[in-house]
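Handout, section 3.2

Students often ask what a structure token actually looks like in practice. Rather than define it abstractly, here is a full record for ABC transporter. The first block is the sequence as you would receive it.
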Amino acid sequence: MIEVEHLSKRYGTHLAVDDISFKVDRGEIVGFLGPNGAGKSTTLRILAGFLGATSGRVSVAGHDLVDDPLKARAALGYMPETSPLYPEMRVSEYLTFRAELKLVPRAARRSAVERAMRDAGVEHVASTPIGHLSKGYRQRVGLADALVSDPPLLILDEPTAGLDPNQIREVRALIRRLGDDRTVLLSTHILSEVEATCSRAIVISRGRLVAEGTIDEIRAMRRPPAVCLAVRGDTERAVAAARAVTGVRTVLTPSAFSDDATGSVEVELDQEVDAGEVTEAVVRALVGADIGIRSISHRAESLEQVFSELTRGESTHAALPHEPGASTGSVPGTPTPPRKSKKGKR
Ligand SMILES: Nc1ncnc2c1ncn2[C@@H]1O[C@H](COP(=O)(O)OP(=O)(O)OP(=O)(O)O)[C@@H](O)[C@H]1O
């Protein structure tokens, strides 16, 4: 439904979108995920035909955006982050005006507006001036606008931005419903939005595509499992003892050992090992090296941490799947993101 090839956009000297390529298939709900300033709105505006690309190619529903812009644009409904609504116009009046601009034939306009209002859940405020609506309802009017020409593809820029939790739940449910018979690409900087609404995510950071896949695949792009131990004793000896255990990949010392020789070590394990067995062996090795163990825990790896690893900075790009020479993790084509540089031995 959407094909993006080597798309770049430069604002003056600033490269806001840097050589990204991806596809969205018919029927998918895809989250375009990235932190503020990542280049999401810029990309979506290009896809919607509102902004020219610096280089690259985009096709929508099989129509090239440059060679066949009218057909490409007719196939999509776009909701910008803040819809330029007219506050003095009534909802139905505004949508009728938008339907006319989108070349919905006069005879079909009334039913198109009614359908869009029904789908976006705004039919009961049809006669209300837009300026009297809450932000959540104005957002829905923006959605009705995107729907009024009944396009098979919806491109939604931060559809729940600025809404309260109830409104967010409602808009997400609405998007899922709309996704039953449409393709949806929505941008967000909120990971839970993608989990709640989308079948797949494309992750962008600093203008570059850093990962794509299902939520489970992205979750699998994790750092290796690790055991965190608070210990007392000689640092060098603790690190050497833990490192000698089979199944241990790396030993880190996140902070310097204090004067009374207490500190912590983070023992990263190989991906495929039995973590329990290796942990036992590490504990035995440390005790054997006369290291006191004060506490032990497993490093938690939430999806938020994976996201923050993926979008952390330039160095992250070095080992990600879209880069030549990227290393592969346990999921085919997925990366092993580099760890934060920490004081310690490897
Ligand atoms: N018209 C413009 N002129 C110059 N720079 C721009 C312009 N629009 C965006 N930028 C810059 O391009 C980069 C990407 O912006 P963009 O709005 O696409 O990011 P975003 O991922 O949508 O962020 P947000 O979630 O904050 O909206 C940012 O550094 C932004 O400052």
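Discussion prompt for tutorial groups: Residues 2-220 form a domain with the Rossmann fold fold (CATH 3.40.50.300). How would you have guessed this from the sequence alone?
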